Structure to design on (467 residues):
């Protein structure tokens, strides 16, 4: 007979827990690596739009107008994101999270690599910006499907008690991607003259994407499918019933949750792109400072941002998603005014402080967002619901933020209007999160497979289970 001693029981429990922990670490690592690569690609475009695309693809315009046109093509990528979220969400809820994550990585990598090969306006005229716009649309479509799958596959592998912490790691892939993109551009700006950078140096980070995608793909292919999704498919097979498309169920049963997700995104998304993309335009065009100053500030800020995101996720497991989220939104609304005051000092330390504190406050919103949005929806519609809420807001928030900020700067010549704009977006977020119910501890396991898989009255999105 087995010896039922305390030591034996403890050893068995420990050995049983180890594979589970190893599995979640593997899933988190693969999800974060892929997210880092995809956002490296996406952010690279934003930095290039602020620094060189206005000269290479829109050379016949006033500098600020050229920047606005470059940011307009930047915003187009955000327009494609909801479509990507819709398509990837639909098939992710039907076929699984893993397959769609691999496809999104391939699409993003191919589009970014081809951008590095694009001829400029001087070579082929109007065809150059048109090709740039097309590739930006592909980027937006791919990243629209990436976020939902990356955070859901981690959320559905982990347990409710530590979900905020584990799900925050794919979120950390965003500053990691920005850190990587900014670091490459900063190095090139340091070792190259402006003429060399504009002639050919800007292409290097885009072509580097091909190598990064290969690494991310190799790691991501080793990930197992979400056990929550597999279980939902099994239950659907055991109890076959006609199913609506996930998007129909989301809009029928979970439209309130979609609106909450959109509102929660507004301040977070708009502030992020003002801090990381528009800041380069403000420093180089308005203050006429070297681009290396802005790149270095974003570099330092992104490193700190990467470090604090898991902390905010861990804290949301203790005090709740809403408390952490609201702290970040209120703090960002206030910091929007101090941000430009520090930039106007034209000092390195003032610029670094402005960007870094802003990104720390942003992290308080962005980190718990993954678990928060995952916990709003049932399994059979979770990919669709989270992706649609997340990506629809990105058009009006992040996609237009650099363009609106540049237009406000061009029309007023001052930063106060931009600060008021950021504060207003944060107010929208505060209202959305305040009216939401706390989701910490909510079970992600639901009946699945039924016609009302997205119905919050079923045993899924509506059931709060403390474990």
């Amino acid at each position: 007979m087995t010896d039922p001693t305390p030591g034996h029981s403890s050893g068995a429990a420990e050995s049983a827990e180890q594979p589970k922990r190893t599995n979640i670490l593997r899933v988190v690592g693969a999800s974060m690596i892929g997210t880092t690569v995809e956002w490296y690609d996406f952010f690279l475009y934003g930095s290039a739009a602020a620094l060189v695309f206005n000269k290479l693809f829109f050379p016949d315009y006033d500098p600020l107008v050229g920047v606005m046109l470059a940011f307009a093509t930047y915003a187009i990528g955000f327009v494609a994101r909801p479509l990507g979220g819709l398509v990837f969400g639909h098939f992710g809820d039907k076929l699984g999270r893993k397959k769609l994550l691999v496809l999104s990585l391939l699409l993003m990598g191919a589009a970014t690599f081809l951008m590095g090969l694009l001829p400029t306006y001087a070579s082929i005229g109007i065809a150059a910006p048109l090709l740039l716009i097309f590739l930006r649309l592909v980027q937006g479509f791919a990243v629209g499907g990436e976020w939902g799958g990356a955070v859901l596959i981690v959320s559905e592998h982990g347990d409710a008690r530590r979900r905020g912490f584990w799900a925050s790691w794919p979120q950390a892939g965003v500053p990691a991607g920005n850190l990587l993109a900014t670091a490459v551009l900063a190095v090139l700006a340091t070792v190259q003259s402006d003429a060399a950078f504009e002639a050919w140096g800007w292409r290097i980070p885009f072509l580097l994407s091909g190598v990064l995608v290969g690494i991310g793909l190799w790691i991501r292919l080793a990930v197992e499918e979400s056990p929550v999704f597999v279980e939902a498919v099994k239950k659907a097979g055991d109890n076959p019933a006609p199913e609506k498309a996930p998007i129909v169920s989301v809009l029928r049963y979970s439209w309130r949750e979609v609106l909450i997700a959109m509102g929660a995104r507004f301040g977070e998304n708009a502030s992020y792109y003002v801090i990381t993309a528009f800041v380069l335009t403000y420093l180089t065009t308005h203050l006429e400072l070297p681009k290396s100053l802005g790149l270095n500030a974003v570099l330092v800020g992104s490193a700190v941002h990467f470090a604090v995101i898991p902390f905010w996720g861990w804290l949301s497991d203790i005090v709740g998603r809403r408390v952490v989220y609201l702290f970040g939104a209120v703090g960002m609304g206030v910091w929007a005014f101090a941000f430009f005051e520090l930039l106007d000092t034209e000092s390195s330390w003032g610029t670094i402080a402005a960007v870094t504190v802003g990104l720390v406050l942003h992290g308080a919103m962005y980190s718990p967002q993954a678990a928060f949005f995952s916990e709003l929806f049932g399994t059979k519609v979770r990919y669709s619901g989270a992706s649609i809420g997340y990506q629809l807001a990105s058009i009006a928030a992040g996609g237009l933020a650099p363009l609106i900020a540049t237009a406000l700067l061009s029309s007023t010549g001052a930063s106060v209007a931009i600060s008021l704009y950021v504060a207003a977006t944060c107010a929208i977020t505060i209202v959305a999160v305040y009216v939401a119910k706390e989701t910490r501890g909510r079970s992600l396991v639901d009946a699945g497979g039924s016609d009302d898989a997205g119905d919050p009255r079923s045993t899924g999105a509506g059931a709060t289970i403390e474990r």
